[in-house]
Amino acid sequence: MKINSTTNRPISADAVGTRAESAVAQAYGGTSGGGSSSSQVALSSASRKMLALQDGSNDINVERVAAIRAAIASGQLKIDTGRIADSLIASARDLLK
């Protein structure tokens, strides 16, 4: 059996939701994508939340990054190396437990 390589492209949460609804509609005999059937498929709130998490908009706090970038540029960023070291040691201890 040969597996064909495909290009992995990111897709939007809307596209994922549409695909999921289409798959459910097809599995249960409904139509999707402009069909004239009156069947409707609704995703649960949990599945909608999971789709929303996939869009990546909550991954980076843009305002915080901008503030840090400005502090670095102006030379006002103070790095507490002792705090960083303490956190690394605490993290290592947690991993060893």
TrEMBL record:
Q: Where is the signal peptide?
A: none
InterPro entries cross-referenced by the UniProt entry: Anti-sigma-28_factor_FlgM_sf, FlgM, FlgM_C
Q: Where is the Anti-sigma-28 factor FlgM C-terminal domain?
A: 40-89
Keyword list, A-Z: Bacterial flagellum biogenesis, Cell projection, Cilium, Flagellum, Repressor, Transcription, Transcription regulation
Q: Pfam families, per this entry?
A: FlgM
Q: Which family does it belong to?
A: Belongs to the FlgM family.
Q: What does this protein do?
A: Responsible for the coupling of flagellin expression to flagellar assembly by preventing expression of the flagellin genes when a component of the middle class of proteins is defective. It negatively regulates flagellar genes by inhibiting the activity of FliA by directly binding to FliA.
What is the name of the protein in this document?
Negative regulator of flagellin synthesis
Identify the species of origin: Achromobacter seleniivolatilans
Species lineage: Bacteria, Pseudomonadati, Pseudomonadota, Betaproteobacteria, Burkholderiales
